[in-house]
Amino acid sequence: MDQKPQQMQVRLPRDVKAWIEAQACENGCSQNSEVIRALRERMQRVEASPSQYQQ
After folding, report:
1. Is residue 28 left, alpha or beta, with left meaning phi > 0 and alpha meaning psi from -120 to 50?
2. pLDDT in tens, 5-15
3. Which residues of 2-32 are buried (b: 16+ CB within 10 A; e: fewer)?
4. pTM of the model
5. Residue in 10, 19, 7 with CA at minimum distance from that of residue 27
6. Measured at the alpha carbon of residue 33, what is the angle toward residues 10 and 24, in degrees to the nearest 5?
């Protein structure tokens, strides 16, 4: 399944941007990879306990 990556512009608070930069540097990867990793971790948590995240 070949899907073309979609682009999305996001405005981040300075502290969040700095954290992403630091994590990317620490892990030797791109800031984009860090954002994807963080989002996928959140997705896994929500899928594991959906009722905890429903409003």
Report:
1. left
2. 899 999 999 99
3. eeeeeeeeeeeeeeeeeebeebbeeeeeeee
4. 0.76
5. 19
6. 95
